Amino acid sequence: MTDKESKKNNKKHLNYKVEALWDQKDKDERKKIMTFAEGYRQFLSTAKTERWAVDYFEERAKAEGYVPFEELGDKGLQAGDRIYFINRNKAIMLAQIGRRPLSEGLLLIGAHLDAPRLDLKPNPLYEDEMMALFKTHYYGGIKKYQWLTTPLALHGFTVLADGQSQKVIIGEDEKDPVFTITDLLPHLAKDQMQKKMVEAVEGEGLNILAGGLPAKKDEKAEERVKRAVLELLQDKYGMTEADFLSSEWQAVPAGKARDIGFDRAYVGGYGQDDRVCCFTAVEALFSRKEVDRTAVVLLVDKEETGSDSNTGMRSRFFEHAIAEMIYASLPQDELIPPELISRRCLFASRALSADVTVAIDPNYEGVLDKRNAARMGYGVSISKYTGSRGKYGTSEANAEFVGEVRRIFEQAGIHWQSGELGKVDQGGGGTIAQFLAVYGMDVLDCGVPLLSMHAPFEVAHKCDIYETYRAYQAFLAASLP
């Protein structure tokens, strides 16, 4: 192309403009969008906790030829190997070893498996007015009123006194009972409705209705409804009340994810923040037969509460896994200390922080700067920064790396848009990008726009889901200097 032709071509693209994705797709691509979204919808219906999501991805990984790292034995890591690490059944890292040495860095996609929910307290079960109830402690940023009068399922993991473990899922099968939190009738809600929304429902008021039939009458027995529930748990799961102390039970919206709209354009369901990015990232990794740089998908826990704990992004799980990979890939006569190579690897890595962002909602568009907001159905969204009120709690991507990702996407024909998490001073939030950035790697937030984020029923556009999958594919396959 001559300089004159180049200038003429550039003038055609002077303005930044994005277009609705469906119009850009032919019949075959539209079919792929719908097929991919159906697989995602089924995943979303079953993987309702971080534990169940890890179980799902481990099963998928094994089917794709991935093996646990500890099963490598003495053979070491070679280009083309497919491995995974699991951290306490709540976080997982999958890696496909590339042709380049690990010291030249990774191509990493990091997302989080946890989602806002209601956790049962350590000593949750009590009786009042011949009703058995569970005390809860909400997890993550929720609007408490959204969880009232909603059918809930219980997803639990219990370690019994003898060390045996029990998996508990009640409320997902059509034959199962469900649970709920009651609300005050409007006839008597005069005082409640005068309150601010944040004050109308107290955290200690999120008590789940769990039973109402008493145990066999006994003059010495007290709290007979509570006892009846304990007898049911004993009969089915071998539990006593003390076993709740070594349990993790979560209350989540009951039922399957669903298509939304006459045209089935959207997927609606619980936990799409951030399992939509987890699913698309893992499927993108599985689609790669070989990679230049080692490709890694890291799915962690506890993002919704600050990424703490030994399963969150602030733990050393990621570092430990990389160090193990480095050591397993070194020749026996390597003179450079593995710790130094690990540091070089992390510093040279490029990462996408795969997390959802807010999309323009016609009902609430006033909270967004429309010139800098993502739109439903316009493709994968990138965000240079998140944070709040002066960019606190964020990692801001450098211009060089944003340019690099742009070129990867455009060369692969990816339809992308730029988004921002609300107007300045409106609020905001963070992702795991800031915790990846501490290693010195380049990081950019990149994911699916959502409506009703953190609600019991979130909404994603099928076009955006599929295009995010394609974007992650292109990133993991990139040959970068």
UniProtKB/TrEMBL annotation:
<comment type="similarity">
    <text>Belongs to the peptidase M18 family.</text>
</comment>
<keyword id="KW-0031">Aminopeptidase</keyword>
<dbReference type="GO" id="GO:0005737">
    <property type="term" value="C:cytoplasm"/>
</dbReference>
<dbReference type="GO" id="GO:0008270">
    <property type="term" value="F:zinc ion binding"/>
</dbReference>
<dbReference type="InterPro" id="IPR001948">
    <property type="entry name" value="Peptidase_M18"/>
</dbReference>
<protein>
    <recommendedName>
        <fullName>M18 family aminopeptidase</fullName>
        <ecNumber>3.4.11.-</ecNumber>
    </recommendedName>
</protein>
<dbReference type="GO" id="GO:0008237">
    <property type="term" value="F:metallopeptidase activity"/>
</dbReference>
<dbReference type="InterPro" id="IPR023358">
    <property type="entry name" value="Peptidase_M18_dom2"/>
</dbReference>
<dbReference type="GO" id="GO:0004177">
    <property type="term" value="F:aminopeptidase activity"/>
</dbReference>
<keyword id="KW-0378">Hydrolase</keyword>
<keyword id="KW-0645">Protease</keyword>
<keyword id="KW-0862">Zinc</keyword>
<keyword id="KW-0479">Metal-binding</keyword>
<keyword id="KW-0482">Metalloprotease</keyword>
<dbReference type="GO" id="GO:0006508">
    <property type="term" value="P:proteolysis"/>
</dbReference>
<dbReference type="Pfam" id="PF02127">
    <property type="entry name" value="Peptidase_M18"/>
</dbReference>
